[in-house]
Structure formats: structure tokens, C-alpha cells
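Mods, move this if it's the wrong board.
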Amino acid sequence: MVLDDAYGPAQITPLLPGAATCGVLVTSRSRPAGLSGAVHVDPGLFDEAEAMELLSRVIGPDRVAAERETARELVLACGLLPLAVRIVAVRLAARPGWSIGAFRDRLTGGRRLGTLRAGDLDLGATFRSSWRRLSPEQRRALVLLAGTGLPDVALPVAARVLGRSEPDSEDVLEELVDLALLGSVTAGRYRLHPVVRSFALAQDVAAGERLLGRSV
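Not the wrong board. C-alpha cells:
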């Protein structure tokens, strides 16, 4: 049995079969806790070679070979996120007349989230779905951490940024890790993926624009 894009145990548990002979594969954007006997597998990010291989398979090895260094810059601009690399590959395959450099420039020129969309593949929509499920405190923490511009941050620094005690900050940050919006580098150190950072900063700008609109 496959349960795709499940949010948490409340969705999953009622659907689990009672027979020990039946296996269940659950995919989720978060890391659902409380599932007895579950084995968690985090696919993580691509390494550079894997990202380049996917790009080559989708748009063709000759096209990648003609702009190899630019192709490398492109997948790095995706933060080696598998879905992001897949989207740019699909979009480039649909635009055989485009250079890889032109697409890299779109991705790095302040249009990252708008560029990471191809048909039903929409990274922004994926993040928006996760964002709607966040508490106000979780949203605030994500936006504030994004605003630091730091690739990773230690708990004492994060606590100062959030204006909270270290234990309270750790609780919120660990919740964001469970929701796959933060990475846990080591105990007490957290990493924000550059694409997630772009999304969080965009939400901060959007909130400011809504506030300005109400005040006019």
C-alpha cells in the first residue's frame, strides 16, 4: 500500500492494514512521529554528480556538455534540491532553443520561485501548502532566520534572532525540522535551504504589502 503526501499520524493510522504481511510506503513532506515500527528514510539533497546526471538525462548529455560549468551553476542555484533540479530540467527540455545560461540567469535574478514551476510541478505551491499549516510562531521563526542570510545558525544565535529563550527557540526550531523546513546539522545547529529562504522572505514581503494596503 502506498500513502502519498500524508501530513501526519491522524491521516495515516486509520489506513494502516492489520495484517503483518502487508507493507505500507508513506511519503510525506514532514517527518510524522508516533508511528510505531516505522522506518524513516530521508532522501536528502542530491550531490552535484546526481544533479548533473538528472539534468543530462532530461535535456540530453550534448546540451549539458556544451555548457557544463553553467549547468553546474544551475543545479547549485537549485540548492541541489531534487524537485527543483527536476523542474528546471523539464522546463529546459521544453525550450530546446534556450541556453542553460539564460535559464540560470532567470533562476538567480530574483525570479527563483516563479522559475521553479513546470505544469503540475510547482515548488512554490508545495511550500505554500506547508506554510498554511504553520503556527504564527513557526512562521515568524522561519522568516526571521531567513532574514539573517546565514546558511546555518547555532541555537544561541537563533535565540537572539527570535528574541526567545534557548529552550523555547529550540522547541520551535525542532518543529520546523520535523516539518522539513529546516535542516538539523548537529544538535543545536540548524540549516535553512536557500530555496526555502527565498520563499520565507517572499512571505515577509507579501505580509508587508498587505499591511501597507490596509493602511492606505
